[in-house]
Amino acid sequence: MSELPTSGDRPEEEAAVQDAEFAPEPVLPEPVRQRVTVLAAAALPSLPADEMPVQMRRVARFAPNRRARLGGREIAAQLAADPLFRQRISGRVVTDAGDLGSAIVAGVAPGAADPVEVAALAYLARPDGWRDLIEEAGHAVQAEADSAAVANQLRDAEQRAARAEHDRAVAKVEADKLRDELARVREELGQVREEARANGKALREAQAAQKRASDLLATEKGRAARIAADHDAEVRRLKTRLAEAEALAATGKAAAKEARAADDARLWLLIETIGQAASGLRRELALNPSDKMPADFVADAVADRPGSPERSRARAQDTDDPGRLDQLLALPRAHLIVDGYNVTKRGFAEMSLEQQRKRLITGLGGIAAQTGDEVTVVFDGAERVHGLPPAPRGVRVLFSRKGDTADELIRQLVRGEPAGRPIVVISSDREVADGVRRHGAYPMGADSLLRRLSRS
């Protein structure tokens, strides 16, 4: 078996194979099965192509370090099912094993040899008594497994003993700590008892002091009652004196009334003389009577008065007057806030939104340059605006954020200004005008700005 069989020996090989097919395959221990697979995988490429089964040709092409792992299942199945293939593989494996292979072929198992290696070679070469060799290897492997299990159990027992010793040491340390803590608690308990005795003594002293205070309070209450009686007597005496003083005052009022009647007569004579002189002067200057007082002019300019529809219509007309807008912009440190689309859709509705914004911002730049005032224009930001040209100097361009409107942003700008600063809001939206007016701003209609821009 140490020499490779030639093609002339194949009938003898096939006869031996046929004799072996009648015996069932033994169950190999797992280490023996893995070693058989490794030996067969290493010898597989040395077989000629005509002696290699078709199923093994693909496995033979695997890399040596991957052949046993990837093709082990196919190799084991082929060895069990194809005695001729197994005999060819065994010839090369036995040759590679050297003296150990020759001893196995002779049916002798060296005592110093690895039982797994002996069983693997015996399975492939199948000398006389090969099943006994495999069985002995299985017993040896099982003995090693049992020995390893006993060693593992011994290690686990040692580890548990070490852990138990460690736990005992930890428990001893914890017990020492608990004894120290108990001593400390006892010491604190003694201190608490001392404090309780001191507090009891202080409580008794406080109760005695309270009793003394109660006695003193009763004494003071008697004294206060006497003082209150004296006070009531003094009040009655003062009331008597007050009645006498009131009688004297009534007498004085009567005398003063008589004196004032004379003074009133003299004053009436003087006023009548002045009135006649004023009437003559009015006729001489030809002055017509006025239906408005100075406060009416102030109210018409900067305030609201409910219940006056005529003045409301006049004020509405004033909000579209560009001259009124010029007067407001002439105020020092004025701030002009413009409702952008409210103005552009009234004046440039035929243009696109981009052209409307550009034209309005350009016109506001001229106003800012002429007046030096702060100018802010606000647009609704529901749609995102791309490619907006830079704003002129002195003009701030704002877009409301998503979920907000330009009207709300205008009201926030007005509320953010300090009280007393002139703020002019351009919008024909009545709700916006009323809202900013309540916060001290001057609302003007969109037409006032459009007329002002048309003059520029």
From TrEMBL:
Cite the InterPro entries for this sequence. Answer: YacP-like
Sorted keywords for this record are:
Coiled coil
Residue ranges of the region described as Disordered: 1-28, 302-323
Ranges of biased composition (kind: Basic and acidic residues): 307-323
Which residues are in coiled coils?
A: 140-199
Keyword check for Coiled coil: yes
Please give the superkingdom of this protein's source: Bacteria
Protein's recorded name: Putative RNA-binding protein with PIN domain
| Record organism | Paractinoplanes brasiliensis
